[in-house]
Amino acid sequence: MVYVWEFEFFDSGGMVDAVPCGSLGGGGTFGSDLNDAVASAADYLACMVDDHLMGGVDLPAPDFGHEPQNGGKIIAVAVSRELGDIPAVTAADAARMLGVSSARVSQLIGAGLLDSWRDGTKRMVSKASVEARLADSPKAGRPKEAPVAV
């Protein structure tokens, strides 16, 4: 499906900021020039769409015809995304990659530490969330207490 959203692009400290218009949420992105900022806005929109697809939640309805709020220009950005476009592994494969049990993967999903969704009878986990977990892997055991200053 194709998703279209308006962004405002404006100069900001030698960079070009890209801020989504309407109800997409706060935040935004930037680029070194307008072309780079438009590409970054497309990546930003794709990530927002992916988050909504994984969560099974519809994006807010886009509205058009926004006026610049920061003296920039309004450009519509479009991306084509489907749930199947998101690189994913099964929950069992995620458990093997992380070196944990399937039950632990379920706990991590429940805690919001892994992104997942159902594909028929299979639980799919985004590869990006598994890789992020591997990169920021907590060590086994209880954390040491911080030394107390005397």
Write the layout of secondary structure elements.
Blueprint: E1 2-12, E2 15-20, E3 29-31, H1 34-55, E4 73-80, E5 88-90, H2 91-98, H3 102-110, E6 116-119, E7 122-126, H4 127-135
Helix pairs in contact: 2-3
What does this structure look like?
The chain has about 150 residues and is an alpha+beta fold. The protein folds into 2 domains: about 1-85, Double Stranded RNA Binding Domain, CATH 3.30.160.250; about 85-135, Orthogonal Bundle (Multidrug-efflux Transporter Regulator, Chain: A, Domain 2). The protein has helices spanning about 35-55, 90-100, 100-110, 125-135, and strands at about 1-10, 15-20, 30, 75-80, 90, 115-120, 120-125. Strands 3-2-1-4 form a 4-stranded antiparallel sheet, covered by helices on one side. A 3-stranded antiparallel sheet has the order 5-7-6. A hairpin with a 2-residue loop joins strand 6 and strand 7 (about 120-125). The protein is globular. The mean pLDDT is about 90.
Low-confidence stretches: none
Number of helices: 4
Query: Into which percentage range does the β-strand content fall?
Result: 25-35%
Tertiary shape:
globular
How far from one another are the termini?
61 Å
Q: What descriptors fit this protein?
A:
Double Stranded RNA Binding Domain; Helix-turn-helix domain-containing protein; 3-stranded antiparallel β-sheet; 27% strand; 4-stranded antiparallel β-sheet; 4 helices; alpha+beta; 2 domains
